[in-house]
Amino acid sequence: MVLADLEGRLAALRTQLCPPRIYLQIQDQAITGMALEGRQVRWLEKLPLSEGVCRHGAPLLPVALGDLIGDWLMERGYGGAQVKAVLPPSACSWRVLDPPLGLGPPEQRNWACAMAQGLALVGGEGGHLEGFDLLVEPLASTQLPRLLLVAVAQSLLVRWLEVADQAGCELEALQPTCVCHWNGWAALRGMLASDPREQLLLQPDCAESWLLALDDQQPVGEWLLPPVSLDPSRVLPAGFVGRALACGGALVHDPGAPWPLGLVSTGQSPQQLLQWASALQGVWGGPVRWLDPVQMGGLLAGPQLWPGSGMGSLPWLLWGLAAPHLAPV
Prior knowledge:
Elements: H1 2-17, E1 21-26, E2 30-37, E3 40-48, E4 54-55, E5 58-59, H2 62-75, E6 82-86, E7 92-97, H3 105-119, E8 132-139, E9 146-153, H4 154-167, E10 170-175, H5 177-189, E11 198-203, E12 209-215, E13 218-225, H6 238-249, E14 261-263, H7 270-284, E15 288-290, H8 316-322
């Protein structure tokens, strides 16, 4: 009894001195959590949300959601964790911009802010521009310097800070989807037999399906696609495939050489993803592969992890969220 109490106190002290880092994927229907130990996935679980708790990634009930997340993490042994989270695509707007030559980083940001106001990346009701925060990320390029400009409503950020405070966690960062796609692809690119410059990432889901285009690791386009059924017996609908073909084909200068298509997961079963990849291979005309960070060696996860997680595979955006923190393989 005394020994068990001592072990509990030591565990609490370790948490205070070195709080664990938790990665969260935010969706309107669920929050998915992941904890790593090195490259080993120690915990992965999906927490369903009731309708009306979140809308487009914005918490509508911050106190209730904070209590729910705080209790969930405490029960799993991650109370007081540092949290990095990825927002859903509908919560962010982004553009890739070519700044004028000769601008340093402060001038680039000021110029990007002015461009954001001119483009009205985040629009409020009645045509008024809502307050927003900007992420300005320089993109490596062999040509002119370019900037990735991401705009997120300030009200959304404030609400997530309220959620984290109520949950007893430290919100370390909120990442936009495009940056996590970008980081995930950059981390896996060297593990492929070939090293393609262009890549399309297709994320089918029952809530939000997306197609993202990357050229030399830089995001160049993003399209919303119809939601799909996660029933393993159902195939991708023709409308979904046709929309993906139309969006991806708009980038292809040579119709005989379509860009490689990477199918990425939001937690679907391997059987579902392989079925979809096979179906797409027959109509895409170019290489189609399922990009799985676990199978490709980016992360380690034993088969015993999946039955209790509520998922059949590792969500791609959680991989992209964690990849910058991992030591090179």
